[in-house]
Amino acid sequence: MGFCDYPGYSVLSKVYIGVWGKKMSPLQRYVPHLLLLISVVLLTWGAAGLVEYATPQVTFGLQNPNFPRGIQFLHLLALLLTGFVFLIGYFLRWPATPFATVTMYAVLATLCFVETVDFQAFGNGPSRFIPMTVEYAVYLLLSAYLLKSQAMRRRFSPSR
Fold this sequence. Notes:
The chain has six helices and no strands. It has helices at residues 11-17, 26-54, 69-92, 97-119, 129-148, 150-155. The radius of gyration is 19 Å and the shape is globular. It is mainly alpha-helical.
């Protein structure tokens, strides 16, 4: 008799109890969903931006006139790839997903630095570094979760 055949089994109990029969903390339950949502947003943003980039008659307002076309292209491609890498890795349970995603966050952080310092992405004054700092903090928190959490270790374990 499989796990699903036991009386009282439900999808909600599987989410709450987890795959290994242990209670999952709210962090373990909800952050993976947040990572999936963020990845879908990044993938969509990058894809829509590249469509807008390639066909100027289509406008979504995603192009930054302060950025050179090459930086704009790299920015949108990095967004698309970051979302794609995590989503494909998550659903295929690719063991290298956490490392590949953290690498893509580093690419985005590097582009953010160049865009902020060289092309005034967030304005001209010293306050432009506040959004950059927040973005870096988010990348660090998500990276730490990807590399250290039990939920992610279980998800991407090569033995599964």
